[in-house]
Design a protein that fits this description.
binds zinc ion, 18% strand, alpha/beta, 4-stranded antiparallel β-sheet
Length: 460
């Protein structure tokens, strides 16, 4: 099976094969100063699909994600205060308490979205020595300078600096702060000393004085610590292309002289009322927001699958509602088929569904895959059910457990269903219709088939 991904580096579709036995994947994780919103989670859902797909295709995968708990300033371009420090002031807590609280919420939300935990989750504050040694390497190779108390990366020394963002729309290249200490406008800080922000709480000793690392160096250091000098795939949102990922490449490649990542995969934004969902604009929706409105977080996962990861996703309550309806109908259709054929989920033997997997191999084309599934569902067979359940290991919609839930009646519903069965046998149709209404009102769907009645729970 040929696997093709759209590589931002080169801006073209490229055939993917790992360099070694294990596929090495690094994903930029959350800065844990606030609740992650659904726009952020689109990245983690897309990365989850990627990892699940590669595993299903027979590869071993080492998936590393970082947690930024220091050094990420309000702007990605070294501007403003540290996000973590601001949050600590706002909530009158210490920085590590903030980090612990928001990373716990993050992993809780991720679990609700059925996102598998990465193999390694690494925290910036636990990798300071690795960051310092990387900066020292860059210093020894002549890529840094010291000005105004900070260590800067000199972008003019790296001719390939703009390679990742080549061909990108200029408007997406973020504004860079005017800093009188910089030699070139695009230079960025590798190490801040206390002189820049006196109220910074987390400070470490370094050859350049007491201070803290820049955000970009964190990812380079952690990625190379856990995955080696060349990664197979580096992922993130498109907003990371112009600065963060461009800077990660510069630092890593200048330190090692090797290609940092062979593939760069980026997902597009989530739009909320036609604007980018962002904290600064106050237009954020979180997992608990949709949870409290009665949605299953998997409805959002389904919505993400409906739109290709490199296309903007328009989030409204309406689009989420249609995703819910489609997801529930998928479960109900499968559950009804199994009930009609007197089969349980555990009796369905697994087959390797090459057809579905090869669709995902086309740059993770999940919208096309869902289209195929909906076509195939019109003439369901046991084999098709088996293939759908099999590919759900990639889609992550929890179809098996949802089918079981769908086919499970509470005690009261079981009694009503049993009574109704008796009234039907005795041809007391008026009574049987009434009992059907009671079940419908309780959230069940009732089907009368040649094999008897089938009652399914609609609230899945
Ligand atoms: Zn990063």
């Amino acid at each position: 099976m040929e696997i093709v991904f759209f590589n931002t580096l080169g801006r073209e579709y490229q055939r993917f094969e790992p360099l070694e036995d294990v596929v090495k994947i690094y994903c930029c994780g959350p800065t844990v100063y606030h609740f992650a919103h659904l726009g952020n989670f689109r990245s983690y859902i897309f990365e989850d699909i990627l990892v699940r797909f590669l595993r299903k295709s027979g590869f071993s995968v080492k998936h590393v994600m970082n947690i930024t708990d220091v050094g990420h300033l309000v702007s990605d371009a070294d501007e403003g205060e540290d996000k973590m420090v601001l949050a600590a002031k706002r909530e009158k807590k210490d920085v590590l308490e903030i980090a612990r609280f928001y990373s716990d919420v993050f992993f809780d939300d991720a679990r609700k979205l059925n996102i598998l935990k990465p193999d390694i989750v690494c925290r910036a504050t636990e990798h300071i020595p690795q960051m310092i040694s990387l900066i020292k390497k860059l210093e020894a190779r002549g890529f840094t300078y010291f000005a105004g108390g900070n260590v800067y990366f000199d972008t003019s020394k790296f001719p390939d600096y703009s390679k990742l963002r080549a061909g990108q729309d200029k408007s997406s290249v973020a504004r860079v702060e005017e800093d009188p200490n910089k030699k070139n406008q695009e230079d960025f800080v590798l190490w801040f000393t206390k002189s820049k922000y006196r109220d910074h709480i987390l400070l470490w000793d370094s050859p350049w004085g007491l201070g803290y690392p820049g955000w970009h160096i964190e990812c380079s250091a952690m990625a190379m610590t856990h995955l080696g000098e060349t990664l197979d795939i580096h992922c993130g949102g498109v907003d990371h292309i112009p600065i963060h990922h461009t800077n990660e490449i510069a630092q890593s490649e200048c330190a090692t002289g090797k290609l940092f990542s062979r593939f760069w995969l980026h997902n597009e934004f989530v739009l909320f009322n036609n604007d980018k969902m962002s904290k600064s604009k106050g237009s954020i929706v979180t997992v608990s927001d949709i949870d409290s409105k009665g949605f299953d977080p998997l409805d959002y996962r389904y919505l993400c699958l409906l739109v290709h990861y490199r296309t903007q996703l328009n989030f409204t309550e309406e689009t989420l509602k249609s995703a819910r309806t489609a997801r529930q109908n998928l479960v109900l259709t499968l559950a009804k088929f199994l009930a009609e054929n007197r089969l349980s989920v555990s009796q369905i033997e697994s087959t390797s569904s090459f057809k579905y997997l090869s669709t995902v191999a086309e740059d993770l084309n999940t919208p096309k895959l869902l289209g195929q599934i909906w076509t195939d569902i019109e003439n369901l067979t046991v084999d098709t059910v088996s293939s759908i359940l099999e590919i759900d290991e990639v889609l992550g919609l929890n179809l098996k457990s949802k089918i079981i839930l769908c086919s499970t009646l509470d005690t009261q519903a079981q009694e009503i269903a049993a009574q109704r069965e008796i009234s039907r046998k005795n041809k007391r149709f008026e009574e049987s219709d009434k009992l059907r209404d009671v079940l419908t009102e309780k959230g069940y769907l009732v089907f009368d088939t040649n094999q008897g009645q089938i009652v399914l729970n609609r609230n899945i």
